[in-house]
Amino acid sequence: MSGKLVKILAKSSLGDLVDALGEYGDLYAPVKTSEKAHSFMEFESLSDIDLSYTRTMIPPTRRRTRSPPLVKKGSSSSGFTPATYTP
Known about the structure:
87 residues; alpha+beta; two-stranded antiparallel ribbon; two-stranded antiparallel sheet; 2 helices; 4 strands; globular
């Protein structure tokens, strides 16, 4: 390795981590939704999390990012101009 520090969390410590992070907001994890599919979603208990997944239907990046809404302003007589996006 090139100077990177890597730490691996023991599965036995996962519950403590989930409890600690849950105090700061909503938690999402891979949850089995059908025989062959998983999705990153909010979970009720630690037993809902499936860490043996290989691929999810909704990846975690789609949960974190949102596309700005497509908005145009103007009138039909003067044409349309793009609106500025302010989050």
